[in-house]
Amino acid sequence: MIYSEPRLLAAGDASILIEWADEIDDAVNDRVHTLTQALRGRARPEIRDLIPAYSSLLVCFDPHRASLPEMREFLQQILRSPQTSLAPAERLVEIPTRYGGAYGPDLPFIGEKSGLSEAEVIRLHASVTYRVYLIGFAPGFAYLGSVPVAIAAPRLDTPRTRVPAGSVGIAGRQTGIYPMETPGGWRLIGRTDERLFDPTADPPSLLRPGDRVRFVPIG
């Protein structure tokens, strides 16, 4: 459900959650990222952090610099501003990816499930320009959507204890890239050599909410 007006909910005494919907919707996600950019552009010292998600934005602030009612009023003013109706800036990031074999052990499963050849699964996965909905689960892990319905796949019944860094996976209609070696239950179809998270870089994450991503098959 998409709300007629954004909801501002107190999340403790030092943060406010702004919700536009309780479902995934690209237009709603655009509003999330547009407001995020507008608030970053204001550079308000009382705002400590901005955490965008699928259909909401968590605004964390310093309660010693602004009270909850003051921050709520400020956010309502921003939401009424014409600035928040502008389309968000987009950045396209291409991810070179080796599909199948040792890099994508679950590619045969998705092919069998969908009735497609492995080559067709790869073609479909690489045919989409994905949106970065949010960063979560692990530093630099971007939730990307949406893969074509034909290659959507359920998570593993039992997650792997070790997924190599750079692994590209599918879970439901989402796809994503593991930025570091970690346990995980997504269906692995390929791997990239791109470094998704570098704590010494600024910003540390290669992908950012609001970016667009394309996977480029390589040999």
Which class do the helix and strand fractions yield? alpha+beta
Helical element count?
A: 4
Gyration radius, rounded: 19 Å
Low-confidence stretches: none
Measured distance between first and last alpha carbons: 43 Å
Average pLDDT value?
A: 93
Our estimate of the beta-strand percent is 25-35%
Q: State the order of secondary-structure elements, H for helix, E for strand.
A: EEHEEHEHHEEEEEEEE
Largest beta-sheet details: 7 strands, mixed, barrel
Beta-strand segment tally: 13
Order of adjacent strands in the largest pleated sheet: 5-12-9-10-7-6-13
Q: Tell me the overall shape.
A: elongated
Question: Which percent range fits the helix content?
Answer: 10-25%
Please, could you describe this protein's structure?
The chain has 219 residues and is of the alpha+beta class. The protein is built from 4 helices and 13 strands. The strands form 3 sheets. Strands 5-12-9-10-7-6-13 form a 7-stranded mixed β-barrel. Strand 3 and strand 4 form a beta hairpin. The model has no long low-confidence stretch (mean pLDDT 93).
